[in-house]
Amino acid sequence: MLSVNELAFDLFEDIAEFADDFNAVYHELDNGARIVDCGVSTIGGYDAGRRFTEICMGGLGEVNFRMGDIKGIPLAFIDVKTDFPAISCLGSQKAGWTIKNGNYFAMGSGPARALALKPKHTYEVIEYEDDFESAVIALESDHLPNGEVMEKIAEECHIDVANVCAVVAPTASLVGSIQVAGRCVETAIYKLNELGFDTKKIHSGIGTAPIPPVKKDATRAMGTTNDATIYHGQIMLTVKAPEIKDYLDKIPSNKSKGYGKPFYEIFKEANFDFYQIDTSLFSPAEVVINELTEGIMYHVGAVNPEVTLKSFGLL
């Protein structure tokens, strides 16, 4: 079976060896753990954002950039595709591991989750397991992890700490904006999984979302990065499952009762408590599905340029 950690390890080795070429900074800790800073103390960039996103997807996704526009305003877009949606999106890219150690906090995603089984139920549902001597984790944080944090990650992954590799970027950074927008396909796969659909029946996924502007702080950045997909993420899935028609109405974000405002406003109204937000909001704006058994195309949802531009500060 494919190893997301083995595939991502090759990607990590490249950015670690040529960190300067990515506007990144390489660190090796005293315990042997290795870290590439993609935005904490450095500017990062599009190449670092691409590599960060590819590592998040366990080497099973392809990432590209292009210029597009929203209501005539030129903006950068990210295009993501994968032929292994359940493994790459749920088994790797999903931010399913909260890293807490003392004052350190990060959202963990990437292939290391498959070794630590974070969360275990996800891997049971997609029937995937990984076995590799190194772990590669992507940390969304405005601080670099210390040796103790890396030791904890190693322990959870059942490997030596010298074999733990991490890429790190804050939400409020260019790489942060890129990698969150790069989760556009994942949001569709995640939503279907939450609805109880067997995501192993999704054979490919391709999607696009605008890359949001970098904001001055993590909370506002959380708003714009989520809005990129909620209000302008466009996804196409290839599925072999006639029962997909029973899930269509619940997929797009516009079915959520919280839909219609920039995420930061919704978050503020909820007193910055995620548990007060309707989770069905975390979905792509528009989805097209090609069902192979019957050769049928389905289309649900729609982009919302006005809220997208308002969130980005362009309206």
Q: How do the helices and strands line up, and which of them pair or pack?
A:
Blueprint: H1 4-17, E1 25-28, E2 34-37, H2 46-56, E3 62-70, E4 73-82, H3 85-93, E5 97-101, E6 104-109, H4 112-116, H5 120-126, E7 135-140, H6 147-157, E8 164-169, H7 174-181, H8 184-194, E9 202-210, H9 218-230, E10 234-239, H10 263-269, E11 286-291, E12 296-301, H11 305-312
Parallel strand pairs: 2-8, 7-8, 10-11
Antiparallel strand pairs: 1-2, 3-4, 4-9, 5-6, 6-7, 9-10, 11-12
CATH homologous superfamily classification: Methenyltetrahydromethanopterin Cyclohydrolase, Chain A, domain 2
Strand order of the largest sheet: 1-2-8-7-6-5
Helix content: 25-40%
CATH classification, class level: Alpha Beta
For the largest beta-sheet, the strand count, sense and barrel status come to: 6 strands, mixed
Which band does the percent of strand residues land in?
15-25%
- Total number of distinct structural domains: 1
Helix and strand element order: HEEHEEHEEHHEHEHHEHEHEEH
- How many strand segments? 12
Q: For the CA atoms, what is the radius of gyration?
A: 18 Å
Low-confidence blocks of residues: none
CATH topology: Methenyltetrahydromethanopterin Cyclohydrolase, Chain A, domain 2
Shape: globular
Mean pLDDT across all amino acids: 97
Q: How widely separated are the two ends?
A: 48 Å
Q: Count helical runs.
A: 11
- Could you say which structural class the secondary elements and strand pairing correspond to? alpha+beta
CATH architecture: 2-Layer Sandwich
